[in-house]
Write a structure and sequence with these properties.
disordered N terminus, 510 residues, 3 domains, five-stranded mixed sheet, alpha/beta, 18 helices
Length: 510
């Protein structure tokens, strides 16, 4: 058989005769991980040369800085599976099952797809080779189980080590909290910033200021040079103030294991653990404010008096300020009449200006929400009448613009390949050997570009279904219903200028 090496005259397999791929993955960009990537490739190359395969650097596919527990984010692995389905490869080589995946379900799924399409799977460290293992899956499953358990065991060990450091009063890394500095691995108060923390709690707790008014006051004091600004921005933001008021670090408390990561739909998502799982360490470091002050700021009964319910906004996430690209939000106001009735208004405002006033952005001409909604409905209905009936064709072309150049190159090389046949068969201008070398070069170039197109498409957002666009135009007639989903299907973005002009960017047009 072709894989047997019973003769000293065995020929080295070339990439075209036996197309293989080498898969490498690193989970972080740290130096030791980069060195590990070189190690993975070197081990695979050594195996190939010992087994009489010709080395080809173009056979290497890599996922850089991507966790082995997240299959959907691994574009190179998706490329391997796609090439297997197209039967373009005969073997995939891994340094170990740890590189293939660290989720047992993903490992078995990847292996099944590859084997089902006749692809040989080799993991060098475990000595697994599907060519010789046959239907015996126990070996692969056992090592997959160990690979899946490794990150869990590592997580427990890391958590225990972090807890030990916290018990010693050490700062365990991450961003330094505002108001503190690190000294001998422990937090100590930085007074210039600590006075800002005390000021925030005093304004909020004792003077009755809300988040926006606290933020405005801080920016006024910052402009006068009386206080320091936040760490990462040149101005104070409402969200920064909110985080400070909700952070128990400022009363000397450190909370460990507050958040965890789970796998949802093939991707990782950070969630907050229930309070009973938290590890709370009181008096972990010097406190800037008292526990009583922190408790008051986070008392639901106290804070509920300051929180206003934001009205439902059907254009949430779509409407943007033309100046700073922040979301346009709804602001409410009302006027109470002598007879006790009151008139309410809802109008649009740049969220950056709403949070920080002139320190955030510019003030827009007041636009009442209902007026804008009516304007958008009329505009979309007119647009629906004027667009081409063949919506699918234009939408398809729009989504293909990003890879059009690659497609042109593929067509160009295919034309050269066809002309090459004429040069050899009819014109006799090249020899058979020259023809074979050049044809192999063209075919490899075409394959590489097709692979690039595939990988590029994996990073693109999913195309909006044409039927949903057509249905969305029909639903515009139901003006009394909530049309948030309809607006999201039809409008990609709407930029509101300070003078009230609005530029619509649609999902169905170039």
């Amino acid at each position: 058989m072709w894989w047997e090496k019973s003769s000293e005259d065995v020929q080295v397999m070339t990439y075209s005769e036996y197309p293989y791929l080498i898969y490498g993955r690193i989970s972080t960009e740290k130096d030791e991980q980069v060195a590990s990537l070189e190690n993975q490739i070197d081990i695979c190359r050594n195996w190939l040369e010992r087994n009489n395969f010709e080395w080809n650097e173009k056979a290497i596919v890599l996922d850089n800085g991507i966790s082995g527990t997240v299959l959907l984010d691994r574009v190179a692995m998706q490329l391997i599976l796609e090439k297997a389905r197209r039967r373009e490869i005969k073997m995939v080589l891994f340094k170990s099952i740890h590189r293939l995946a660290r989720d047992m379900r993903d490992s078995l799924e990847i292996k099944e797809v590859l084997l089902a399409h006749g692809v040989r799977v080799v993991t060098i460290e475990e000595g697994y080779d599907s060519l010789y293992e046959g239907k015996n899956d126990m070996k692969f499953e056992m090592f997959s189980m160990f690979a899946a358990q490794y990150p869990k065991t590592l997580s427990v060990s890391i958590s225990a080590a972090l807890a030990a450091k916290v018990r010693r009063g050490e700062h365990i890394g991450g961003r330094m909290p505002y108001g503190y500095r690190s000294k001998d691995k422990k937090l100590e108060i930085y007074e210039e910033e600590a006075k800002v923390i005390r000021m925030i709690y005093d304004l909020y707790n004792n003077q009755g200021y809300g988040f926006k008014r606290v933020t405005y006051t801080l920016n006024e004091e910052l402009r006068k040079g009386n206080i320091l600004g936040p760490h990462l921005k040149d101005k104070w933001q409402v969200t920064t103030v909110q985080r400070i008021l909700r952070n128990p670090t400022y009363c000397g408390v450190f909370v460990l294991n507050r958040y965890t990561k789970i796998k949802v739909g093939g991707r990782k998502k950070q969630i907050e653990n229930p309070p009973e799982k938290w590890q709370t360490f009181k008096d972990h470091h010097p406190a800037i404010i008292s526990i009583e002050e922190f408790t008051k700021a986070n008392n639901k009964e106290f804070t509920s008096k300051k929180i206003k319910i934001t009205p439902w906004n059907e254009f949430r996430g779509i409407l943007k300020c033309s100046e700073c690209k922040s979301n346009m939000v709804i602001v409410q106001s009302y006027k109470k009449k002598k007879d006790g009735t009151r008139t309410e208004w809802k109008y649009l405002k740049c969220s950056a200006y709403r949070r920080g006033g002139e320190y955030g952005c510019v003030n827009h001409t007041p636009i009442q929400y209902e007026d804008f909604r009516e304007f958008a409905l009329t505009h979309l209905k007119d647009k629906g009448k004027s667009i081409s009936v063949d919506l699918g064709s234009s939408f398809y072309e729009k989504k293909k613009n990003e890879i059009k150049q690659l497609q042109k190159e593929i067509i160009n090389i295919e034309e050269k390949n066809r002309n090459l046949i004429d040069l050899y068969l009819e014109d006799k201008l090249i020899t058979k050997a020259e023809f074979q070398v050049k044809r192999k070069e063209y075919e490899q170039s075409i394959q590489e570009m097709q692979d690039r197109v595939f990988m590029f498409q994996q990073d693109e957002e999913m195309q909006i279904d044409i039927n949903s666009i057509q249905e969305a135009f029909k639903q515009l007639e139901n003006t009394d219903e909530d049309l948030k989903h309809v607006f999201e299907v039809l409008i990609k973005e709407a930029l509101v200028h300070p003078d009230g002009r609005t530029d619509f960017i649609y999902t169905f047009e170039n």
